[in-house]
Amino acid sequence: MFLNELNDEQKRAFLVLASRITQADGEDSSDEQEALEDVCAEMEIPFEFDQRAVLGDIDVAMFDSHRARVIAALELMRFLYADDYVHEAEVAEIRAICHALRFPEPWIATMTEWAKRMAWAEEDPLDAQRSEYHAALMTYANRVMDDIWR
Q1: Distances (CA, A) of 123 to 84, 88, 120
Q2: 63: helix, strand or coil
Q3: Do the beta carbons of residue 21 and residue 35 sit within 8 Å?
Q4: Among the four 55, 83, 92, 150, which has the fewest Cβ within 10 Å?
Q5: pLDDT tens sequence across 42-75
Q6: H/E run at residue 97
Q7: Which one, of 61, 59, 73, 112, lies nearest residue 49 by Cα?
Q8: CA 29, CA 127: separation in Å to the nearest integer?
Q9: Predicted model pTM
């Protein structure tokens, strides 16, 4: 959705962060592996990362602008809520990432809600109501990225 706006270093870092989320519950599902591969295809980067980076400290230094930080957080939230099952450990991991990105609790709550609503809107893109809501969610996301309310 917004991942192509990131530079190559940010895309590789996003893949590491997304991998942290998929590994947080201790399970290695083929659906999660496929989701990571899809993210790489969307970002047009190879599906390769250093596992030590996934297991190490959260590194978000390369997300050096408000827009890049919001893109990373929204896309990670979207990634988390894309399927029907969300594990508590995955939620804890994404919250830790959002804190590392320096988002206060109200922002984290808002981005979480955005991702849940986006998942609903994307369930049936041919449904006119969902399509209209999807467009409104995209407009909202762009406003948050542009930081017009700060």
Answers
A1: 11, 23, 5
A2: coil
A3: no
A4: 150
A5: 999 999 888 899 899 999 999 999 999 999 999 9
A6: helix 88-100
A7: 59
A8: 30
A9: 0.86
